Amino acid sequence: MKKVSFIFLVSGLILLIINISGLFMSMRNPELYSETNTGRLNDVTLRLEDTKKEIVRREGETDRSFALRINDVVSRSMMHYYKKEGEKKYSLRVPVWENWPLWLVSCFSEDKRYEFAEYKKDLERGVGLCSTHSVVVKGILLDNGINASLWDIAGHVVVRAEIAKNKWWILDPDYGLVVEHDIPEIEADPELVRPAYAEMAKLYKPDYDDPYTTDHVVGIYGKEGNHIYDLNLPLEKAYYVAKWLIPFLLLIPYLFMKFKK
Questions:
Q1: What does the pLDDT read at residue 261?
Q2: DSSP letters of 95-156?
Q3: pLDDT for position 118
Q4: Which of 27, 77, 94, 254 could be joined to 51 by an S-S link, Cβ 3.0–4.6 Å?
């Protein structure tokens, strides 16, 4: 029992050291500001320190003005990138120092990349797909009292936001675009989104081989495949509780024996 308790003690201390070191590290790799291996033009033009200032609601700012500004800020603050070769470089696989239980789970997963449900983690990392950008916008809006939800439009995730009382618009932070209509209207007539996505070609690099076209986006806004999109935030929060709780529990047997002695 004494040997086992000592092993638990050492394990607990190692995990605590890992956790504490993570408090002084960031998942955002500054190289994302100069990354060229993406299909987008002007992908990231706003640095994290400036983004944190910009997401603060201004005095007297209406729900509509704030929602539209946040949609633009997030679009300019995050890189559209989810390549497997960037798992380590851009912390697409959760680093052990960020959350060792999530890192441990990834050891048994074929795809080790992870999308955070907590928007502040996604914003810190600064890379992801349309869903990641949308998670961030939704989180900021909810924190500021604006109703918002995520919608999967046949594989492309956007934000449905209440920009005024009983008035809902679609925000697409992946492209920094806004559709001034709600889901039922759009499903009845997908052509309503065409003006918002009319200049898709200008958002991609000329040599990119798989861009979304205006016609494609209009097509996916139909009724087929549309549904609410969500991530398991309570489970993720449990992992963050566990990363601290487990190390302290591992210390208890050794401390108990010392106290008893």
A1: 64
A2: PTTT-HHHHHHHTT-SS-----SSHHHHHHH-EE-HHHHHHHHHHHHHHTT--EEEEEETTE
A3: 97
A4: 77
Per the structure, the complete domain to which residue 177 belongs is given by 2-260
Closest CA to 124 of 51, 24, 17, 175: 51
**Residue 68 CB contacts under 8 Å (≥ 6 apart), including other chains:** 163, 171, 178
The answer to whether 105 touches 168, Cβ cutoff 8 Å, is no
Q: Strands 79-80 and 127-128, how do they pair?
A: parallel
Compute the distance between CA of residue 72 and CA of residue 77 in angstroms, rounded to an integer: 9
What is the value of pTM for the model shown?
Answer: 0.93
Provide block-wise average pLDDT over 10 residues at a time, the chain (261 residues). 84 97 96 91 93 96 98 97 94 98 96 96 97 97 97 94 97 97 94 96 90 93 86 94 97 80 64
At CA 71, angle to CA 66 and CA 75, rounded to 5? 145
**Contact between 18 and 98 (Cβ < 8 Å):** no
Q: Is 180 helix (H, G, I), strand (E, B) or coil?
A: coil
Total number of domains in the chain: 1
Query: Which tokens go with 260?
Result: 């008893």
